[in-house]
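Chapter review. Work through the record for Type-F conjugative transfer system pilin assembly protein before attempting the end-of-chapter questions.
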Amino acid sequence: MRCSEWRPLRMARRVGRLGLLTGGLTVVSQVWATNQEPSSPMDIDAKLQAIQAGANAILSHIDGQPLPAWLQQANERSSVFATDAETIAKRARTIIEEETGFCASGSESAENPPATITFTLFASRSLGDAQLRDIFLFASGQPETRILFRGIGEDESLLDFMATLKPLLQDIDPPPTVLLDPTPFREYDIESVPTLVATGPDGQELARVSGLASTTWLRAALDEDKTGDLGVRGPIREIAERDILELIHQRLARLDFKALGERAVARAFDRLPFEPLPTAGEDRERWIDPTVTAGADVHLPDGTLLVRAGDSVNPLDKVPFTQRLVIFDASDSRQLAFAQSLASDPSDKPTTFLLTGAHRKGGWNALTRVMEQLERRVYLLTPEMRERFSLDRVPAIVEAVGLQFRVQEVAMVGQVEPDIARSEME
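Structure tokens for Type-F conjugative transfer system pilin assembly protein:
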């Protein structure tokens, strides 16, 4: 196993095997003469470099001088020994790396960081509160470990599921990583818990074990190069929860979307913000002067001065109001008949119908019925419109005459016919 692979290695072994190399490499035998573990394999390189530096100094001193015959023979033999020594030194570094987990080169360790192993613990509430609490405590402070649940109970909500785990996670700091994700259960074909799966940096499974919730045993197994399915090492349980994706699909299949849509539409009508007004008991006409006095200069978006502070302006002098507004309560059959007469009455002004009320029980059908009778669209009276024209009673007609607004309230006579009106609309 090479250092560049950075596989987790056992540190309990000693480097006694290096004693086999003492006959071939003097510096190695000196380092381990006391049969003690070196402080760092970097020391070996330092000693080798020192010996090499001394040899280079000797060679430079005698460079250019003829060697004696005996030294020439020794030089030839030393070349052979040097080749053997280099081979032994390389083998020594390999053994050091395999036995200690250290690299003999500092630059290599910087370029090849240790590989990250991720542990996924598949759990279920079938394990019981006590064991789940122990699992959460063990996984606290281990970012490489995550705890997965497959889903929730048959008739359980997601909030209820979370509520059952909250007491078990109380006072655990930092909290472990707990996820609800059925997909890994499918990917790894998990049928029982606890099951612990170790994956490498590429996401590929390295090893798994069932019946154990602690990563200690699986780490040790990986250190011994054990991979694959390592079997069952403790008690296991069936998974209590349903796959949440399957449960969602099942619940969706039981839903009546047509009925849900109808109820949603009905609720939307119930929330329509009507502005109810009392019915007019007598005819009344009022005039409203829309003239306003500017409290500050008013400019157009391009900076042009439109109105100076203190100037009085009548909006009708600038923008004519060409509509006729009819405000009425559609739940009153008399007001509905009045609005219908105005809808069929020819007018030189386009008429806009504003509602202050309608039969709530009839829902949108009641509103549709009103538009069919008027053959016009109807709109809701807004609070701003009610305040702008000081509307007090309905039905009322608002239109501009000259530079003022005229508000006419029309008294309703006769009896309201709620039963007939509602039966037609509902």
